[in-house]
Amino acid sequence: MFSTFLSNEIRFMLVIEQDSSETNTPNFRTESGSIDWDKVRQFFEPDIVSHNEPLSHQYCTALTPKFHQFLKTFSTITPPNHLQWTNRLDLLNNVLSQRSCTLTNLLVLTSIVEYSLGNLFLTQTGGITPPHLLRDLLMTDALTNLLGETTIFLLRVLLGSPNGINLRNLVWHGFPSEGEVSWLYRNFLVEMLNSIGRRLEELGFVVEFRSCLQDSKLLVGKMNLPRFDVALLKEVVTSSSELQEIQWVGWIRSIALYKEEQFYCCVCMVLPQLEMFLRILYGGLYGRDFRAKIDEYYIIMDTIFEEFESVTEARNRMHDYFRIDLLEAMYDLLSAIRGPRLRDKLSHGELQIADIDEQVANGVLLLSRIENRELRSRARKSLETMLQMFPAIQQGLRHVLAIVRWTFHCLMHADELRDADKLVKFLKFILKYVENAANNLNIKSNAWQPLYETTRRELYDKTRQNLTLLLC
Known about the structure:
Largest sheet: none
Shape: globular
Strand content: under 5%
Mean pLDDT: 81
Number of helices: 22
Structural class: mainly alpha
Helix content: 55-70%
Radius of gyration: 27 Å
């Protein structure tokens, strides 16, 4: 049994030791309770590194005691009133209610920070897609110009460098246990979000929000999974010889969240723990150190799922350890590039609380109880077929809109009644196609084939014929 999944170097930076002897820490709050950025700047002034310069491990290690001293001043939270810019008020209210454990709060908060900063970048740059990695996002001129060097510096030390505390990556890859993450991180992140919101309001800065398609429900629905037994899962967690004892608290908390119908937080907790469980098994099969380390890449989900090793091209031993249908199901739902990518979307803050319902949560606890491989295979094939059809369907709908606009333009300039009559008939043809398309589409049952066939048969062929008649 292991007492930690962190190397000594990372644990030193992450774990905040409580020391009552520290009495010389400045007060970084204004009279109103908000962050006093002048005092923060003065405190860190000798240490601040420009946003576009890398942070070395030696630098971050040396800065750790001072940064921890700073975080300890956030023992309380000022009631936040400037969080609307995040577009995640429901999730933040859940965090502020303190109903969830610290680890759950940090999973939610770090994803919200990344999503919200991405929206700032998108708005500030006039629509440029934000960098995929948080560390790259925090090194951009656009965010620094908007928020200032001091704010970006603090976020980089905490979240944005693999050589620093790297809080976001550590919690989302399942490395820390509940006792290794301080509630001070939670308080600080809430205060930072509130402080940024206040600054945006002062600037009159209106944030553009990104949206994301949540298609996990389609795949989970096609799996036809039974409802899992809460009592049975709890028994498995506490009796499993392969599950580390320090993981018990997290799994039990996940079960409690499911029973409380907090499905978003439940899935946030389960995914990193599932990844850590698989990482431990993979490390055991290959004799590799699975802990989080500074000088080595993590064992990630892609490595665990690949059928053949990228270097030796030998068959992945995980494929002999697990049933192939189980690995495929986990890969389809969590990691496949053309799949729902549930884990990525959740960890990057792209999903809202309503996107994770009981059905999705049930599918993520139930992955190890899949018995019908054929059903799962059909689900995968259905998803792939749907994704292949989308471009043609989208092109067809854009074609309809363009034709309707052109037809109305012609109607406005028609010289003869005969021409106008033809154009009206053509509009009726388009209306008939739209009605047929609506009747042939059933999103709940994932029935896209009839719509695809209707688009190819009715729209493209007959449109060309009708346009030919109109133009003759």
